[in-house]
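Continuing the series of single-chain predictions for the mutant panel. This is the parent chain; the variants come on the following pages.
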Amino acid sequence: MKKCYLVFSMLGILCISCNSPKQKEIAKAVVAKAEPNNIVDKVTRGQQLVASVGCNDCHSPKIMTDRGPEVDPDRRLSGHPSQENLPPYDKETAKSYVLFSMGLTAAVGPWGTSFAANLTPDETGIGNWSEAQFLKAIKEGKFKGMENTRPLLPPMPWTEYRNFPDEELKAIFAYLKTIKPIDNVVPAAILATPQPLEAK
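Parent structure:
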């Protein structure tokens, strides 16, 4: 019987100590650290997504190697280089095909000419964007994530990316805000069909 009292007493002390304010604080800190919304985890998740869904394919200038074009690490995700002019091309061919620049940052097709945006946190990129703008750009295909702007142009696959849950898109945005800002003013798109004034 004494052993039974001893066991129950020990359990009681254990329960009380585990429910002490200090223990609760420690438990909350552990839970908060494990939360998926933790900013470090969010940025890491965003980095994984950016690396996995092909953002570098179009938004990063390339350098030519003996294995073909590779991402230029000094200009990663900075969009079509402002100083890079496209060579002449056959306009008739562009009506039936999609033509890409050597670095894959510009595309010509029936819609006109589109240039990959600067995704770095520089003011020439997404530095002044809000998270809501980023979500609107991807979910609704709106240029710069703003109302009354033109739609995002091919080859940007926003119609596929809009299926990402908001939390995944927020993670991508959080990661993009942490990368090196690069000053690069991407040229304006050249539309095949002129848009109404409010849609430019």
